[in-house]
Amino acid sequence: MNKERAAQLAEKEARRQEENYYEEQLAKTLQDEWNRAQELEREQERLKWESSKMYQQQLEYQLAEQEEAKRKAYEDFLREKLLIDEIVRKIFDEDLREAEDRLKETKTDTRIHRRVQESSGDVERKRTLATCRREQKNSGICQAAADTRK
Fold it and tell me: What's CA 88's distance to the chain center, in Å?
């Protein structure tokens, strides 16, 4: 019985060692898989971070392009505004010169008209004076004729 017992104990010990071996192998396999899962998760996080970083850079690039386009559009607007302002200023200056010319013409016309009126007035006065002289002469002649008839 001792031999059987010793054989049973030896067999039990062998099974225990075999179970320990399988458990260790299983634990090692589980540990390896867990490590791989952790590494895979870290790699996925890194890829996700890189993707996020790349997306952020693309957005920043697009934003910079939009800002540059806005800046150029504003510069174009200012350039066009300066051109338009210059054209408006030239038109205003031209209109002002024309108004000044018209005013000068009006003043000249007024002076000419006054001179004409003055001249007309002088001519009219001369006519009136001549008429009065003729009338005086005529009345003198008429008086003299009346005196001679008497």
Answer: 19
